[in-house]
Amino acid sequence: MESEDLFSKRAASFGATAADYHRHRPGYPAGAIEWALGDRDRVLDLAAGTGKLTEGLLDLGLEVTAVEPDPLMRAVFTRLFPDVPMRDGAAESIPLRDASVDAVLVGQAYHWFDPATALPEITRVLRPGGVLGVFWNHDDDSVPWVSGLLELTQTSVGAGRSRPGRVPEHRDLKPPEQVQVHHAQRRTIESMLCTLRTHSHISQAPEQERETVLARASSYLKSHSETADGEFDRPLITTAIRAVRR
Question: What single-letter DSSP state applies at residue 174?
Fold first, then answer.
């Protein structure tokens, strides 16, 4: 189990690679977003980062407000989405009034929250009948080459083989529901290595270890027919969890 200091360091690490994060992290499939939202259209993208989830929300014609604590991530977000209101804030202290949004959506960030503080804040800003929707993109490790890559990109900071978190039950939320949506991200060896660099278990590893792991990953990808030549599909699963405000 990682220390509190390491957890905090990893949680705060993404701003340093904000532009690469937006360029190389996958988005979220429309089907997962629509399942979580239903017919709700006034949305808070909480811990919005550079706007990977906001991008999908705008494609669906939704009204979005964003909240993000990291100034470097906010800077990229506001450059890319200048018409979307962006607030400085965190899940544990949301700078919105009570019952002001139909949905609070969280992409690839809920596991960094303190649920004991964040859930009361989330339910505070949700209207009755509103929804908390949480999304995690993770590699489909049922695919052999993907599983092998995840094994060899472990570092002393952590493993590449991530699992979606969970949303604890809360008195103001109905029991959570969950679906999984399969999709893919087009990658090359070079762009796959850039994606790996944005993961905190690699970015926060000591420099020599980090470069050794990435060199090993490059050799591995060059040695497999599925990934060796040009573009390939990186198989992904989006786990979506929704919980409706009582």
Answer: P
Question: Tell me: the pLDDT tens digits for 192-234?
Answer: 999 999 998 898 899 999 999 999 999 999 999 999 999 999 9
* Residue 90 DSSP symbol: B
Helix, strand, coil distribution of the chain in percent, nearest 5: 40, 25, 35
Tokens representing 101 are 């949004």
207 contacts 104 by C-beta, under 8 angstroms = no
CA pair distance 13, 133, nearest whole angstrom: 24
CB atoms within 10 A of CB 82: 8
Helix axes 144-152, 207-222, angle to 10 degrees: 160
Are 65 and 96 in contact by the 8 Å Cβ rule? The answer is yes
Q: Are 86 and 68 in contact (CB under 8 A)?
A: yes
Taking only the tens place, the pLDDT of each residue in 102-132 is 999 999 999 999 999 999 999 999 999 999 9
The pTM of this model reads 0.90
- The whole-angstrom separation of Cα 14 and Cα 203 is 9
CB atoms within 10 A of CB 190: 10
| CA-closest candidate to residue 37, choices 180, 178, 242 | 242
Supply 185's token pair.
Answer: 């991200």
Count Cα neighbours of 206 within 13 Å in the Cβ-side half-sphere. 3
- Listed in sequence order, the residues at least 6 apart from 63 whose beta carbon sits closer than 8 Å to its beta carbon are 41, 42, 43
Task: Write the single-letter amino acid at 140.
Answer: D
